[in-house]
Design goal:
- There is one protein chain.
- The chain has 201 residues and is of the alpha/beta class.
- It has one domain: P-loop containing nucleotide triphosphate hydrolases (Rossmann fold, 3-Layer(aba) Sandwich).
- Helix content is 38%, strand content 21%.
- It has a 4-stranded antiparallel sheet with strand order 2-1-4-5, covered by helices on one side. Strands 6-3-7 form a 3-stranded parallel sheet.
- The longest helix is centred in the middle third of the chain and has 20 residues.
- The chain starts with a strand and ends in an 8-residue tail after the last helix.
- The C terminus is likely disordered.
Amino acid sequence: MSIPLQLSAISKQYLAGVPGCSARTTVLVGVQLAVWPGEIVAVVGARGCGITTLLRCAAGLLRPDEGVVAWRSSRVRAMNATAYVSGGGEVPGALYTALRAAVERGATTLLVDDLSLVTPLERRLCLAVLRERAARGSAIVIAADEQLARDPCVSRVMMVENCALTQRRKRSAARIASSSPASRARASARSTYGRSLRSPQ
């Protein structure tokens, strides 16, 4: 059985954001992830640890500095700027546009069937937000709180944690970090699923 979505050794850095500054901030280092058919993966982590960056790399919206993203054994390349447009329009009555939309809807339906996302929808085991995401054919779910990470629809929890960020938090405000919802969600994910992934620094 082939792996539909596989991320191998994904690394990403950003410029610090100050004009003229050449300092870089490391967000992801050597992240590995494989999503199997029928599996829904929850990506859990604190704010700023690189969850959105990881999902953008997986979707082909952002090019990683290192590593490979493969969809059905084909390498995913970053899309051009038009991929970031939030919406588009159709010309009513245009045959080509109507046919293309119908083909894309059919491909989405096949994808949902391939990932076996219909069963959780029919049984209504998921939270409402997860049912909605599953209906869109989403195979990766962001879990930001303990309740979402414990949902029976989530088959595996992946933890992404920027170690440098964690060390700064521990030095500056250990008592806040120990009582934050994100740290409770991480602890819950470790105890419930026993599988985690850290982004090494």
